[in-house]
Amino acid sequence: MKRKELQEEREEWRRREYRRCILQAAERVIVRKGYGAMTMDDVAREAQFSKATLYHYYRSKAELPLEILGNFFEEIDQGVRKINRLRLSAGEKLKKGIHFYLRYNEEKENISRMLMVDRAFTEKMNIFVSDEKKITSEVDRRFITKMKTKRKDILISVSETLEEGIASGEFRQMDVGGAVTFLESLLQGYCHVRLWH
Predict the structure, then answer these.
(1) Is the distance from CB of 33 to CB of 42 less than 8 angstroms?
(2) Are 124 and 62 contacting, i.e. CB atoms less than 8 angstroms apart?
(3) Tell me: the pLDDT tens digits for 131-188?
(4) Which residues contact 81 (CB under 8 A, 6 or more apart)?
(5) How far apart are CA 4 and CA 79, in angstroms?
(6) 108 and 116 in contact (C-beta within 8 Å)?
(7) Cβ atoms 159, 68 nearer than 8 A
């Protein structure tokens, strides 16, 4: 690799790490104070960055919950893909995938709780149920597109596992799309109901 390529690669890694640190700091502040009470000053202090550095990566507080949720989907996608690459039977991959999803949701329980309970956070999340044609913010529009793509990627990975099991004779013939929808609903329902107890 040439020196310039190495510098660009290091710079990209640094940007990703700064964003990751900021999001983790924002998660901790949200858990402590709630989204509504959180300020960019709080996040900068928690991340141990200057406010200028924080604003270089995120222009407003409104971008943070979207990024946190986006990161949530990204990490689930990466986990499912990693499991799918293992040399295991489809049944074992499916079990590992379910265990991974449940463990991950348990680790992120406080953020999941904030998604459902914090009024300001919930209002921001209304973009999920809004008519997409009525979304005026370009940030929100890009976010919705990204989340739909990420969710689709996750569901495709699960479909591939089921299809692999059908092809090997490990699973019976089934409506793969229906089975994936059922699994998604079951797991999400379980995780959400758990939070209310």
Answers:
(1) yes
(2) yes
(3) 666 666 777 777 778 888 888 999 999 999 999 999 999 999 999 999 999 999 999 8
(4) 157
(5) 32
(6) no
(7) no
